[in-house]
Write a structure and sequence with these properties.
The structure holds 3 protein chains of 3 kinds.
Chain A (H helix, E strand, L loop, with lengths): L1 H27 L4 H14 L3 H24 L7 H18 L5 H30 L3 H21 L31 H20 L1 H11 L1 H6 L4 H28 L10 H11 L4 H25 L4 H14 L16
Helix pairs in contact in A: 1-2, 1-13, 2-3, 2-12, 3-7, 3-10, 3-11, 3-12, 4-5, 4-6, 4-10, 4-11, 5-6, 5-10, 7-8, 8-10, 11-12, 11-13, 12-13
Chain B lengths: L1 E12 L2 E12 L3 E5 L6 H9 L6 E6 L2 E3 L4 H6 L2 E4 L11 H7 L11 H14 L15 H12 L6 E5 L7 H16 L3 E6 L2 H7 L2 E6 L2 E8 L5 H9 L23 E9 L12 E6 L2 E6 L6 H8 L7 E6 L2 E2 L5 H6 L2 E4 L3 H5 L6 H11 L9 H14 L16 H12 L6 E5 L7 H16 L3 E5 L3 H7 L2 E6 L2 E7 L4 H9 L4
Parallel strand pairs in B: 3-8, 3-9, 6-7, 7-8, 13-18, 13-19, 16-17, 17-18
Antiparallel strand pairs in B: 1-2, 1-4, 4-5, 9-10, 11-12, 11-14, 14-15, 19-20
Helix pairs in contact in B: 3-4, 3-5, 12-13, 12-14, 14-15
Chain C lengths: L1 H27 L6 H19 L2 H25 L4 H24 L4 E3 L19 H18 L2 H11 L1 H6 L4 H25 L4 E3 L6 H11 L4 H24 L6 H22 L13
Helix pairs in contact in C: 1-5, 1-8, 1-9, 1-10, 2-3, 2-4, 2-8, 2-9, 3-4, 3-8, 5-6, 6-8, 9-10, 9-11, 10-11
Classes of the chains: A mainly alpha, B alpha/beta, C mainly alpha.
């Protein structure tokens, strides 16, 4: 119990240090940090409709972060959540477009399933390369993000192009109104229900299945589970599929929900924020739910800052990056030379 | 004249006291042995002298000057060099580069490859090292790597040479060559400190014996001449009883092989891997209720054998039968279902997940057998693991603590608790007592004997011949992946030692 | 043909410098995923320096200082705070990207890009097709050669390699791997600064937010594709640049037959191909995500 508290305490301490560092940077850049942080808090929780905005971002962040968490727990650095999210949205968009006039009760689940498949497939290829050839997944999933962003641009300005659009921003045709599962406010009963169900299911998978425990063992020592007879390729592929599938699910829900259409360059930092959430939450599903709200607030604030408060949105990116830099730190710096343990 | 002296040296790692107030001075140009069980603090002591470990208290004097502790540079400048137990040579370096990177003489900053080889050719020749300067470390056999390591240590006019367990990886003839080399060094004025744990070796090479027990110095600079083995054993262990010279008699199984076989390997061959040589036409039979010891210098196919048994190295030809069932093409999971259990070479890499909880480590075998997405009850697994660990005398506080918090002996017991169950038919124990203290070693051997009594077949792989002689009903010698000989009790050290090195050029 | 070579050389040079920076850190045992942030910080700092002071030397100096400090920060977080190098590197890259965005807005208001009044000194018309090559392009082969000699023919290079390959061996001869990694990271930072400066001031004289577009990560991939070797990493980086060049040329030649996004994704696809090939050739030596024993 105490070691858990220590880990949480340490994480919070480093988050605080990161925020302090950011405050100094903002001050040096000529933006009064008190005002900056005040505006962030306002944008997240206080301004009118801020809570709704926060929840609206917390939900896709939560689902994506759970996916990241599964992969990380199994020892795989799947940092391609952004790309997998995009491909989920793209797949769902194609289905929604093809079956626009069909009965929602069939088309919506089909579109969601397509989104899960799209994200899972975009995680499958780096996963396969890793499991089969040992190709490091850090670079492959990272490149996958860039490629997916370009694919999104292509689809939104090509096959699914909105003919009536202005052409300035790559925007696709909107999803049929009957197929939407939430308005642009982003919070609806359907969405919340889906998120809760997924959360509970994934908590079961992570904590109460053989895969969850074995994956966690494999994440800390892949060699050891091989010596027990596990097939590390199976665990690995399952990890990538779960991970990508969840990101794709988030993408599909985004498309059918608050977004309503594909937009080039949409939610560009969602993937990295999800990774950060999983890390801050110590790779635990319940904690991820809580941390997602915090980062949902940051996301809401990042739209509020430049529009209402006149601060650059980059401030939020800097905060995220600073937390990312420090969150995996495990020690306080030792300024005294102590005896070194033998290797 | 004292070549190296330490006073009041204490080393603590957190709560563990590795060395407690050690004070001793070693005379110049003598060969001194520092002995003790595993875990007694010998390696820590050596590393304090070399400056790699900084003690929390104490002073170090080399020659007549006080030397700052915890600084490798200071120790090396004073002429102290350490040859490590597992070699500290980057595998991709050439021999010339390995000698160069440790050198502290001032030379031109840039060199060409030829100039480098010229610079070190004499040094290598003078030490009679059978390697070319352009050879890469990873391509050299173990004994040559050690010779290069010694050469590196002698690069800068060492006055004190410390060797940490140099005999652990050598066959008996190579050990004699090493001792001859050490005597030559001693005659040329070098002070030699050699860390050993075998009484026979100590009495063969040392002039004085210093004994560490549980971090404290219990005997200082005893003259080795005329010492009785039993006295030395007594000093090392602290009580009369089982020693590592096999004084306690053990019960060997009946000389005839039993009708049922736990394992039958017939003509097994594998492909060579970076890990070790291929198995070549190995035929091995382990009966139920029999312990077979595999002897051989490390790197002669033992790892390949274990990998082949574990289905991690496929058999190119030959057959493998486990408890009567052909498992040649079966994956590890099926072999485990058939009763194969493995206590692997690398406890911390292959046997345990150090960062994971004890209950997870123990449950791993159960979790792997069965569908991956089936629901499990962590609470039930926790209590089952608690019971198992208590039955195996593991010292732990909670089943949730990570495996890294256990001592070597306790960690090995966790592995035993997991692997040795009632359904085991063949237990493969690879170096099961490496790094363990005497009490833990005895525990492991007893566990294996109990398994044998339950009609289990056991394979023990060890580079410690005394242990093998003590526990095995039969000994098989592996050389370069082939079975070079098979022996029954009573075992002849010379004959087995000769077989171990027979195929070497 | 020569003109094509010159063009490829110019576009490859920033990538090569950054790859060399990543290479030397990797040799010492740190896989630096912060290259993207360092590269863009170098680009931004050099442009800001030149714009504010009117001198190229000052611009380069500012870039070098900023990148050296950024590398030192990464070293501190990884070595002293024991953070995970992959995540910490990503964090540094994020700081670089966000920080340059903030800096541009703070200094120049709501601009997305900044024009520099000067460019790096160039070879000039006397060099024919290579007229547009800046001094950093010319210096690049010498830098590669210098690093090769440093790593393969000096004791310092052996010790640095030992820190990455077998840190205990390094410690046992008195080398402090942590200190060596700091030196390697700072040298790497300087190289990233030069790469960023070349990107911004080499040809176009402009800094725009996000202009690196993942080149830092490509350089990171080039390091493992090039076997952590100065020449190999440079060639691997050049390969990615060649792919980009061929894509653009192909686009122009075939009259936009393929969607522009596909062409733009070619370098990223080439990077994936590169890391896949290197894992095939080298079998998988410890992947980047597996931490080294310190």
């Amino acid at each position: 119990m105490t070691s858990r508290l220590l880990t949480v305490g340490r994480a919070l301490a480093f988050v605080a240090i990161a925020l302090l560092g950011c405050a100094i940077v903002f001050q040096l850049a000529g933006y009064p940090s008190a005002g900056m942080f005040g505006a962030i808090v306002a944008g997240a929780f206080i301004a009118p409709h801020a809570i709704v905005h926060t929840l609206r971002w917390a939900m896709p962040l939560f689902i994506t972060a759970v996916g990241v968490l599964v992969a990380f727990r199994c020892g795989y650095f799947n940092i391609g959540a952004q790309g997998q999210f995009y491909f989920g949205a793209i797949a769902a968009a194609f289905v929604a477009d093809a079956f626009g006039g069909g009965p929602p009760v069939f088309v919506i689940p089909l579109a969601i399933a397509a989104g899960v498949a799209g994200g899972a497939l975009w995680a499958l290829w780096p996963g396969f390369l890793r499991v089969r050839f040992g190709t490091d997944e850090v670079i492959t999933t990272l490149m996958g993000n860039f490629i997916a962003a370009l694919a999104l641009l292509y689809v939104a300005s090509g096959p699914l192009k909105d003919a009536s659009g202005s052409g300035e921003v790559a925007a696709a045709r909107p999803v049929a109104a009957a197929l939407r599962i939430a308005t642009s406010s982003g919070v609806s009963f359907t969405l919340v229900a889906i998120v809760v169900v997924i959360g509970v299911l994934m908590w079961l998978v992570v904590d109460r299945t053989a895969f969850g425990v074995l994956g966690s063992l494999a994440g800390r020592n892949p060699v050891m589970v091989v010596w027990q007879g596990a097939r590390s390729s199976r665990i690995g592929l399952a990890a990538f599929l779960f991970s990508g599938g969840l990101a794709g699910l988030a993408g599909a829900l985004e498309l059918l929900g608050p977004s309503g259409r594909l937009l080039g360059g949409f939610a560009p930092t969602l993937g990295f924020s999800a990774i950060l959430i999983a890390l801050v939450a110590g790779l635990s599903v319940p904690a991820t739910a809580v941390v997602s709200i915090f980062f949902g607030g940051l996301a809401a604030a990042s739209l509020y800052l430049p529009v209402i408060a006149g601060y650059p949105a980059a401030a939020i990116d800097i905060i995220n990056a600073a937390i990312t830099l420090l969150i995996t730190a495990r020690a306080w710096p030792s300024f005294t030379r102590r005896s070194r343990a033998a290797a | 004249m004292t070549a190296l002296a330490c006073e009041g040296v204490t080393v603590t790692y957190g709560d563990v006291v590795a060395l407690r107030d050690v004070s001793v001075g070693f005379d110049r140009a003598r060969i001194h042995a520092v002995v003790g069980q595993n875990g007694a603090g010998k390696t820590t002591f050596a590393r304090v002298c070399a400056g790699i470990v900084r003690p929390s208290g104490g002073r170090l004097t080399i020659g007549d000057e006080a030397v700052p502790v915890g600084s490798v540079r200071a120790s090396r400048r004073s002429g102290v060099e350490l040859v490590h137990q597992s070699f500290a040579l980057p595998p991709s370096f050439t021999v010339a580069e390995a000698l160069e990177f440790g050198s502290i003489e001032r030379t031109a900053p840039v060199y060409s490859r030829r100039a480098l080889e010229r610079r070190w050719a004499d040094h290598l020749a003078s030490l009679d090292v059978p390697a070319r300067l352009g050879d890469r470390i990873r391509d050299l056999p173990v004994e040559t790597q050690q010779a290069v390591e010694i050469a590196r240590a002698l690069v800068s006019d060492a006055r004190v040479l410390i060797l940490d367990e140099p005999t652990a990886v050598l066959a008996p003839p190579a050990i004699e060559r090493l001792f001859a080399r050490l005597r030559r060094l001693q005659q040329s004025g070098v002070t030699v400190l050699v860390i050993l744990h075998k009484i026979r070796e100590v009495l063969a090479v040392a002039e004085t014996v210093t004994v560490l027990r549980a971090g404290s110095l219990v005997e200082r600079l005893l003259p080795a001449a005329g010492m009785r083995p039993a006295d030395l054993a007594h000093a090392i262990v602290g009580t009369t009883g089982a020693t590592d010279d096999g004084v306690t008699p053990s019960i060997h199984a009946a000389a005839e092989s039993t009708a049922r076989a736990a394992l039958e390997l017939a003509g097994a061959s594998t492909r060579a891997t970076p890990e070790g040589p291929a198995l070549a036409d190995v035929t091995l039979r382990v009966g139920c209720g029999e312990i077979v010891g595999i002897a051989g210098v490390e790197g002669n196919g033992q790892r390949t054998l274990v990998n082949a048994l574990a289905a991690l190295a496929p058999l190119e030809s030959g057959r493998m039968t486990l408890a009567g069932k052909d498992v040649t093409r079966a994956p590890l999971l099926d072999r485990r279902a058939r009763g194969l259990r493995i206590i692997p070479f690398e406890r911390n890499v292959e046997g345990l997940s150090l960062g994971s909880a004890l209950w997870q480590n123990w449950s791993a075998r159960l979790l792997v057998a069965g569908r991956m997405l089936r629901l499990i009850d962590p609470q039930r697994l926790r209590s089952a693991s608690r019971n198992a660990l208590e039955r195996w005398s593991v010292r732990f506080a909670s089943v949730d603590q990570p495996a890294s918090t256990l001592s070597g002996g306790n960690a090995q017991k966790v592995i035993l608790a997991r692997e040795i169950d009632d359904d085991a038919t063949l237990i493969v124990a690879a170096q099961p007592t490496r790094g363990l203290d005497i009490a833990a070693m005895a525990f492991v051997w007893q566990a294996l004997r109990d398994a044998r009594a339950r009609d289990c077949g056991v394979i023990v792989i060890s580079s410690d011949l005394d242990e093998l002689f003590d526990i095995s009903d039969r000994i098989v010698v592996l050389v370069s992946g082939r079975v070079a000989g098979e022996f029954r009790a009573p075992y002849d050290l010379r004959a087995i030692g000769a077989t171990m090195t027979a195929a070497h050029a | 043909m020569i003109a094509a070579l010159a063009a490829i050389l110019q576009s490859a040079t920033p990538l090569i410098y950054v790859a060399l920076g990543g290479m030397i850190a990797a040799r010492a045992g740190i896989w630096n995923l912060g290259l993207e942030g360092l590269m863009i910080a170098g680009a931004c700092a050099s442009v800001v320096g030149v714009t504010q002071s009117g001198s190229i030397a000052v611009g380069l100096a500012v870039a070098v200082v900023v990148c050296a400090l950024g590398s030192a920060l990464l070293w501190f977080v990884i070595e002293k705070l024991r953070a995970n190098p992959v995540i910490a590197g990503l964090g540094l890259s994020g700081l670089g990207l966000g920080g340059t965005d903030l800096a541009v807005q703070a200094i120049y208001g709501n601009e997305a890009s900044v024009h520099a009044p000067l460019a790096l000194p160039r070879l000039g018309p006397a060099a024919g097709d290579f007229a547009g090559c800046s001094m950093l392009v010319v210096a690049m082969p010498f830098v590669v050669a210098f690093l090769w000699v440093l790593l393969r023919r000096t004791r310092f290079g052996l010790r640095l390699s030992a820190c990455g390959e077998h840190p205990f061996a390094a410690r046992s001869v008195g080398v402090d791997p942590a200190r060596m990694r700091l030196i390697a990271l700072v040298i790497g930072g300087v190289l990233c600064a030069l790469g960023g400066a070349e990107l911004a001031l080499g040809r176009l004289q402009i800094f725009s937010v996000g202009m690196t577009a993942g080149r830092g990560y490509m350089a990171f991939a080039a390091v493992s594709f090039g076997a952590m070797n100065p020449i190999g990493s440079a060639l691997a980086a050049a390969f990615f640049a060649v792919v980009e060049y061929l894509g653009i040329k192909g686009q122009l030649a075939f009259g936009n037959a393929a969607p522009p996004e596909l062409i733009l994704s070619l370098p990223y696809l080439a990077t994936v191909l590169g890391v896949w090939l290197s894992s095939r050739i080298r079998g998988s030596a410890a992947t980047i995500s597996e931490l080294r024993e310190y």
